[in-house]
């Protein structure tokens, strides 16, 4: 006599194979079925896109809030920029190694960027050495609240373009 577990397994496997055959037959021969699959796929893509946009807005708000909190609780030292830069990068590297601390690491890298005299050079270094997710957060932080050294760099380049016109 057959084991009840074997019978159950075989009947479930036969049901799954039967459903696969039914689904394939409907997909190939029924235009309405194909259309419904296509519409469901498009609806799922729209929902995913909307969900991503909402999560991006939420991420931006969280980043903005954490950045302001960080800058208010620990203002950047302008007296010893080199030491501040080294401390911030060291702490950021330690945080980037910890899963779940990507936002904190990005804020520390941003703080280091804020005191570095040549922001374009350090952004190039970040792009090569920092994980892509954290680098994306750093760029988002600079878009939310550009550091003074980047703002002055942009003002200088705008002034030089206006002078040549």
Automatic annotation (TrEMBL):
<keyword id="KW-0813">Transport</keyword>
<dbReference type="Pfam" id="PF02064">
    <property type="entry name" value="MAS20"/>
</dbReference>
<dbReference type="GO" id="GO:0030943">
    <property type="term" value="F:mitochondrion targeting sequence binding"/>
</dbReference>
<keyword id="KW-0496">Mitochondrion</keyword>
<keyword id="KW-0812">Transmembrane</keyword>
<dbReference type="GO" id="GO:0006886">
    <property type="term" value="P:intracellular protein transport"/>
</dbReference>
<feature type="transmembrane region" description="Helical">
    <location>
        <begin position="6"/>
        <end position="25"/>
    </location>
</feature>
<keyword id="KW-0653">Protein transport</keyword>
<dbReference type="GO" id="GO:0016031">
    <property type="term" value="P:tRNA import into mitochondrion"/>
</dbReference>
<keyword id="KW-0472">Membrane</keyword>
<protein>
    <submittedName>
        <fullName>Tom20 protein</fullName>
    </submittedName>
</protein>
<dbReference type="InterPro" id="IPR023392">
    <property type="entry name" value="Tom20_dom_sf"/>
</dbReference>
<dbReference type="InterPro" id="IPR002056">
    <property type="entry name" value="MAS20"/>
</dbReference>
<dbReference type="GO" id="GO:0005742">
    <property type="term" value="C:mitochondrial outer membrane translocase complex"/>
</dbReference>
<keyword id="KW-1133">Transmembrane helix</keyword>
<dbReference type="GO" id="GO:0030150">
    <property type="term" value="P:protein import into mitochondrial matrix"/>
</dbReference>
<comment type="similarity">
    <text>Belongs to the Tom20 family.</text>
</comment>
<dbReference type="GO" id="GO:0008320">
    <property type="term" value="F:protein transmembrane transporter activity"/>
</dbReference>
<keyword id="KW-1000">Mitochondrion outer membrane</keyword>
<dbReference type="GO" id="GO:0006605">
    <property type="term" value="P:protein targeting"/>
</dbReference>
């Amino acid at each position: 006599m057959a084991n009840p577990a074997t019978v159950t397994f075989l009947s479930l496997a036969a049901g799954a194979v039967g459903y696969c055959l039914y689904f394939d037959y409907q997909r190939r021969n029924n235009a309405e079925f194909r259309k419904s699959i296509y519409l469901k796929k498009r609806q799922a893509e729209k929902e995913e896109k909307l969900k991503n946009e909402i999560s991006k807005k939420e991420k931006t708000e969280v980043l903005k809030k954490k950045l302001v909190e960080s800058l208010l609780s620990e203002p950047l030292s302008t007296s010893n920029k080199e030491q501040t830069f080294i401390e911030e990068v060291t702490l950021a590297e330690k945080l980037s190694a910890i899963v779940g601390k990507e936002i904190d690491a990005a804020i520390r890298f941003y703080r280091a960027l804020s005191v570095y005299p040549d922001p374009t050079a350090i952004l190039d270094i970040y792009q090569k050495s920092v994980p892509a997710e954290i680098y994306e957060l750093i760029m988002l932080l600079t878009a939310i609240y550009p550091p003074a050294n980047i703002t002055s760099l942009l003002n200088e380049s705008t002034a030089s373009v206006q002078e040549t016109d």
